[in-house]
Design brief:
By secondary structure, the chain is mostly helical. The chain has a single domain, classed as Up-down Bundle (Na+/H+ antiporter like fold), CATH 1.20.1530. The protein is built from 14 helices and no strands. The longest helix is centred in the C-terminal third of the chain and has 26 residues. The protein is globular, with a radius of gyration of 18 Å. Keywords: Cell membrane, Membrane, Transmembrane, Transmembrane helix, Transport. One of its GO terms (biological process) is transmembrane transport. InterPro entries: Mem_transp_PIN-like (IPR004776). It is a multi-pass membrane protein.
């Protein structure tokens, strides 16, 4: 279980650095926004190119993807219905809330957990591809549409994701993986370097926001925060288990991989998206905090029961 603690501890330390910098008044909320923008427009697209170019895209055709997709769909639908009919959230805020309830930290935490706990970093690839190529483009299209202040046309919904740097980086990475092409060093090395700044930028920006932003639950209903956190930590892994084991007959290490991946906390880049579009920032921040802390015992329990 050392990999679980190592992954969470690494994230926690970098977040703490951001909070400390803010506490010492070395940086402020302006710096937080700049870091988030750099991560969104530069670091994350480069990271997606390099990460997905090395992934085995044939894994997306596995039972893993079916169970993972169902585990994402259920929390998104549940939160979406509540956001629409109970909390009456606008489109952008509801989109960030849905992402907070279902978008797992498959990159900077999922990869080390898959490596150390499951023994194979490639096991997280189906989740990465599902999120980057399906869930994220749809969410970004909705966020872009909300920013326009009007309902998007079908053409806008179809084309807008492809104007987004993260989507373009993801698609380029998949193209490289499928074709087997390797970027020349003069291109690959700078992309690798730029990609390395994505996760630290996200985490430091998140730490700044924790220190200088509103208090926990200050931006809305506590029930909404509890809902997003429960959907992420409890509902998503339970749905993954039910679909994988009961419906598809998955067992053993493959089942453990599916459930552990679904039990990962909300990804930090959801906070980057929230900051970029100025929608649901505190809900995203608080859900990330709660699920990051809560995922440790959840993943340990899953590993104990299924390992």
């Amino acid at each position: 279980m050392q990999g679980v603690f190592t992954g969470f501890a690494t994230i926690g330390v970098v977040i703490a650095v951001g909070a400390l910098l803010a506490h010492l008044r070395i940086v402020d909320l302006t710096a937080q926004r700049i870091l988030s923008q750099v991560a969104f427009f530069v670091g994350s697209p480069a990271l997606m190119v390099m990460t997905l170019s090395r992934a085995d895209v044939h894994d997306v055709l596995s039972r893993n993807l079916v169970a993972t997709s169902a585990a994402v769909l259920v929390p998104v639908v549940v939160y979406g219905l509540l956001a629409r009919f109970v909390w009456h959230r606008r489109l952008g805020d509801a989109t960030i809330g849905a992402l907070s309830a279902a978008y797992v930290n498959a990159g900077n935490l999922g990869i080390p957990v898959a490596s150390y706990v499951l023994g194979d970093a490639a096991l997280v690839a189906p989740t990465l591809l599902l999120q980057l190529l399906v869930l994220q483009p749809i969410a970004l299209a909705l966020l872009d549409a909300d920013a326009l202040g009007r309902a998007p046309s079908l053409l806008q919904l179809v084309t807008r994701p492809f104007r987004n740097p993260l989507t373009l980086g993801s698609l380029l990475g998949v193209l490289l993986s499928v074709t087997g092409w390797t970027l020349p060093d003069v291109v690959g090395n700078p992309l690798e370097l730029l990609g390395n700044l994505a996760v630290p930028s996200m985490l430091i920006a998140y730490g700044i926001a924790l220190r200088l932003g509103p208090g926990l639950g200050a931006a809305g209903s506590v029930a909404e925060l509890v809902t997003t956190s429960a959907l992420k930590l409890v509902v998503q892994p339970l749905v993954a288990y039910a679909v994988a084991h009961v419906a598809l007959g998955v067992d053993g290490p493959a089942l453990l991989a599916i459930v552990v991946t679904s039990a990962l906390p909300t990804a930090q880049n959801i906070f980057v998206h929230a900051t970029r579009y100025d929608r649901g920032t505190v809900l995203a921040r608080d859900t990330i905090l709660i699920t990051t802390v809560g995922a440790v015992p959840v993943i340990l329990l899953v590993a104990a029961l299924l390992g």
